[in-house]
Amino acid sequence: MASTALTNLSARLKDIDQLLNAHTAITKFQKAERAAQNAGGQLAQVAEVFNALVTDPGPGKPKEVDAINRAAFVLSMAHFQGFVDELHAELGAIMLKGKADDPVAVIKLVKPPRSNPHVNVINQMFSGIGVYELMDSINWQKCDNKTVKSRLTGYLETRNKIAHGSKESITKGKVSQLKQFIELLAGKLEEKAASKATVILGKKPW
Description:
mainly alpha
């Protein structure tokens, strides 16, 4: 049985699939438009609508998909942050049941305000509800713990640069890699959190 937080994340990541599909659709349209022009067809009026919806990217970046790639990257990281917050609240309510008069207040107290889900922030959040060193043993095939932490830090830094107006080079492939990373990391975080909580509770939390 999965946590509500992980179930919600899986549903929200479908947003990224939709953006990636839009990426493909726009690219196909542009190819069709060029082909039609070469053949004397008239798709120029429709093309103008797409051109009006995008901004000029940096050199070498197709403007039809540049904004979509950046939006998908930022949204992916926002969904991961939402997952961490939800998992913390969900597990906290279980861990603090019968131990605190107001578990919700305690959960809010131990959560750093307006913090990106960096490794130390995740560890701090979950330590506040009795689940320690959550990020310190997360790994999977061909990705050891040091690499997991490094990749998360790198993705967060890129997200912040984009959010502050930097024209980062984001490809569709990079978005796909990020989505896969988030899915793996979220699954491992939920699994590790449940394992640590089970030792304390004497039963599985979900």
